[in-house]
Amino acid sequence: MTTSVDPALPPAEAQPEVIAAAEPVAVTPTATTAAFVAASAGAINQRIAEELGVRERQVAAAVELLDGGATVPFIARYRKEVTGTLDDAQLRTLEERLRYLRDLEERRAAILESIHGQGKLTEELQAQILAADSKARLEDIYLPFKPKRRTKAQIAREAGLEPLADRLIGDPLTDPATEAAGYVDEAKGVATAQAALDGARAILVERFSEDADLIGTLREQVWSRGVLSAKVREGKEEAGAKFKDYFDFSEPLTKLPSHRILAMFRGEKEEVLELSLRPDAEEAEGPTTYEAAIAARFGIADQGRPADRWLRDTVRWAWRTRIMVHLEINLRSRLWQAAEEEAVRVFAANLRDLLLAAPAGNRVTMGLDPGLRTGVKVAVVDGTGKVVDTATIYPHEPRRKWDESIATLAALATKHHVDLIAIGNGTASRETDKLAGDLIKAFPQLGLTKIVVSEAGASVYSASAYASEELPGLDVSLRGAVSIARRLQDPLAELVKIDPRSIGVGQYQHDLSEVKLSRSLDAVVEDCVNGVGVDVNTASAPLLTRVSGIGAGLAENIVLHRDANGPFRSRAALKQVPRLGPKAFEQCAGFLRIPAGDDPLDASGVHPEAYPVVRRIVDATGGDLKSLIGNGSALRRLSPAQFVDEQFGLPTVTDIIAELEKPGRDPRPAFKTAAFADGVETLADLRPGMKLEGVVTNVAAFGAFVDIGVHQDGLVHVSALSKTFVKDPREVVKPGDIVTVKVLDVDIPRKRISLTLRLEDDAEGGGAPRGDRPRGERGGARGQGGGPRSGGGERSGGGERSGGGERGGPRGGDRGQRGGDRAQGGRGGQERRGGGGRDNRSGGGQGGGRPDFGNSAMADALRRAGLDKGLSSGGDSRDSKRR
């Protein structure tokens, strides 16, 4: 058999342990771990600079600011000259890498101290430790010196068998049995020659498995060639049906997407699947390439010498009982870490979309929290979000008071001049959406607009201590309706009241590290809040808490001061708030807005420290501040360079002038509603070739779901998003986008709609949607590229999708845990006007693709994504169960 050995891995020297063979030298460990990390600061900065592609001084400046207590939003916005214009994304990456590399240095210091304490730290070993560039490499080097329980190898050494091991590997001409006979000593526990050989083998196995260079090389080889396999446990087929796709499954490690890794590990955790990691796709006969690499490393070759066979068997034993076991544990951890990082990234991206959804603004809004048995909770809030009325109606099963419910809603809308109706997307959302549609048709003079919004996390808010303080006289069941109404008015201001982990826009979020997830999501919330800015006179304490430099305690102090003394008239007045010192003021002032205050600049994003620059700009124009603000023509004639000084460079001055042109501008998109086509209200109304306007409700790795007003979202497969190759659908669309799509195919029995953004694509001919046609009219929808194979929204691991996720918190009544809400990341609820009731869930059974779904790639992808569940029964199996 031909074997390949990594040429970069040199043979080990003849002596058994290279490091142990050298004499210990007097190497003084660092005085403290903190001092060691501090001494490594330059190397850390240099490495981060190389990774980010920036200069080292930029990194050093940013690190100094972060260590000084500055936040990422503050540094990105107001310290551009200091960091060389590093943006918030670069700073977040820098912050994460800084944390990892400092942890690495702390571990390096601890390892050096441990080995030094054992008296085994040589110059060569210290050099290896200092050169290690990852935690995995450090642990490989440390393995031989790591305190451990007494091993077979250690017992063998204590019995004096190490010379036997050294003799056999050093001189294969030695006969193992003959040599071992000389080591028989019952007093030492070596009763026979075979026992002596077993002890020698244990010593060599440990030596092979603790060779850092060898293990590092083998790890990368297994990573590049290995396969993760899954099979169902006996008798678990029915109970573990949601993992059916993995009952007999294998895929190369390097090709496994994160959602699949998480699903397989979830299946193993629930004792449905058995996972195994194979080092090669195909099982090899005889010695593997990995065994050949071990043999070459230690100069072992089968040349017919007396000890060759024994040594070869020792290599095989080392590989199969120690090294591969160790590598499997290590690589499973590596797989999990990669999948976890991607899942956190997806969660963060979805959360950002939801937080930065277009706000409807100060419009009177009626919130409907749908329910069946317990009724639909109704709350009306005025333009400021104040609750002005509430009610509970029972339009659905079992009471079915439809007309009475419409009359109640009409009366509330008339009394309070309601403009918008926000409908939560939970249980009975379809039916409640139809109720609102009938209300609008029956009372067109009211001018109502209905919008379906994500109610993710509303239950958590309802039961929270803050909700009790904010809405003390309101029943818990009605608080959710208030939250739904307010999140349409201003999604960001309302959603910050909820733990971001409870908003439910993540993939397998309850399997992820709480620390990593919280850190990432908190960063997203912080960036979003500070990017938009906060009105200090109307903001809630939870919203203020997310402002740069303000924590929970300081936020409460601001609210208490505001309640006791009235609205703040200037940013300078913030200094009167207890515990709001100079550092906190520096960090927060630029992000807090005071509309209609004493100074017009206080309503802008210009930091108070830069007001002198504005005064110079005003003097240069010869006018006054109020006439200059918003005067684009005058501001565009200015040269920013003439206002640069020692403190404020060109980037900051340029930002100041831009801010003066549009002071306090909201970076969020304008609130838009899709104009759904008249007369297109059900799947039966659709025809291939129709061009319709719709709202993107969710984005997964395999495509985007679009609401076109027919109770069921259509799927634009990733291959139909653009004429060019699309790696990430988010590069083209995001939740809440208003798009024009063409209908490619409609499958009424399966409630599947195939759409395309490539409007020149040919639709399937034939006029009527499938299900209304005679048998045999099954053409091929073009433009789908064979259907989604990526499975980005794979549901196999317990109902969570890449854009969906497990919902946080109990809801009470007829609610339960609902995975994969349709409007998760859904831009805070864009209008879904037209049509009747819809299934408002991101994975609500929608598909698309080829006409014959039976054995197609589209069907396979939809099945993997969990999107074929409940379609034949109306697409909402959960509602039917609850009835």
Give a concise summary:
By secondary structure, the protein is α/β, with parallel strands linked by helices.
What does this entry look like structurally?
With 883 residues, the protein is α/β, with parallel strands linked by helices. It folds into six domains: 18-145, RuvA domain 2-like (Arc Repressor Mutant, subunit A), CATH 1.10.10; 162-347, Tex N-terminal region-like, CATH 1.10.3500; 362-503, YqgF/RNase H-like domain (Nucleotidyltransferase, domain 5), CATH 3.30.420.140; 512-604, Tex RuvX-like domain-like (DNA polymerase, domain 1, Orthogonal Bundle), CATH 1.10.150.310; 606-663, DNA polymerase, domain 1 (Orthogonal Bundle); 672-883, Nucleic acid-binding proteins (OB fold (Dihydrolipoamide Acetyltransferase, E2P)), CATH 2.40.50.140. It contains 33 helices and 15 strands. It has a five-stranded mixed sheet with strand order 6-5-4-7-8, sandwiched between helices. A five-stranded mixed β-barrel has the order 11-12-13-15-14. It has a three-stranded antiparallel sheet with strand order 2-1-3. α10 (152-158) crosses α13 (193-209), α13 (193-209) packs parallel to α17 (308-355) and α17 (308-355) packs parallel to α24. The model is unreliable at 1-8, 13-27 and 772-883 (pLDDT under 50).
